[in-house]
Amino acid sequence: MAQKMTISFTVNGDKETREVNVGQTLLKFIRNELHLTGTKEGCEIGECGACMVLLDGKPVNSCLVLAVELDGKELVTIEGLSKNGELDRVQKAFVEHSAFQCGFCTPGMIISAKALLDRNPNPTDEDINEALSGNLCRCGAYQEIREAVKASVKK
Amino acid sequence: MPSYEYVKCTDLKQAFDLLSSREQAYPLAGGTDLMVGMRGGKFTARLLVDLKDLEELKILREDEKGITVGAAVILNEIAAYEPILKNIPILAQGAHSVGSYSIRNRGTLAGNICNASPAADTAAPLYCLGASIVIAGTGGQRTVPVEEFFTGPGKTDLKKGELVHSVLVPKPYPQEKGVYIKASRTGSVDLATVGVAVQRWGDKVKIAVGAVAPTPVRALAVEEAVNEKGEKDWARAAKLVHESISPITDLRGSRDYRYHIAEVLVRRGLEQTMGV
Fold this sequence. Notes:
The complex is a heterodimer. Chain A is α+β, with helices and mostly antiparallel strands.
């Protein structure tokens, strides 16, 4: 019988209290319990970045975090970036620059890019590369992704 | 879903008690190696002891002894800590080489060494800096030199019920340049195929190499040639790294390739720190 624990946290601005199974990853919890399926399940070993979310404002691989570790923390997923139906500037830039092909890596890329711009409003190309170093795009849309991040800096 | 218990520790004693009394109890800090290891079957945990919120382990400070990095301090914080960047930048380079930006938001220095991969990016810089590992347990604290902490692949000097409390890089710091050079298949999110740290100390040099032996190793033959025999031909000195290493073939590179690249990186490290 899996141990259960009650945790309280904020998800995309809303306060929540939930019972979680110990052993469940934050990624599975987000997708299967919170039903926020924008966060993607890729490699599940912290190499691809498809599961990137913001935990207390920092990008982390949610496949390597336990759901119980969310207790007392603030979680932002890709669904939390748009405000009143309007996309975030990074999301808009990705659309304008066609910075995706299949789209599977896109939520993770946007989360990493958003975190970068929050901590460093004027990133260099090197800063952008580093910030996205944990996000893989199997379609190889890196050039457009970089362009989109650069474009969102100027806005 | 894996079945184990989880305890978020509120004091260190609770952590020691749990780790010493329970079977298959693992300390959890960043979890970036532990979670992957559990998923891959490397560890079967029945209890995770979460240390992340212990204030004592969050210490990152410089004092008269040197720089102390608590076990719960994340790698991104280490790579950006001003006293580290100013006095021992080689450690910042090593910390910055681990995983990716997001991995470094969770992963810790203590975790990187406790995982005891021969390829641990922070190990070779710590060897060159003469770092000490502060180990805590029910019996109190003890300190071991980092070179004695690693005992084999995935193996450390830690006894049951003990954990790494902090890492101390002692004063005096080197006044000269140090570099950590990593060869890997991709720019990030890969372990080192070979990792070389070269730290100049006055007119002498300390060199450590990762991913070429069961633990990170000092390149003592190279050091002797440069420090004692006055060898100034870095290419000739670098060849002597072969005496200190015993690499294996794996998916990151063959044994022969590792011999070759270790020599190349040692030469480059000498050029960059001791002058061309």
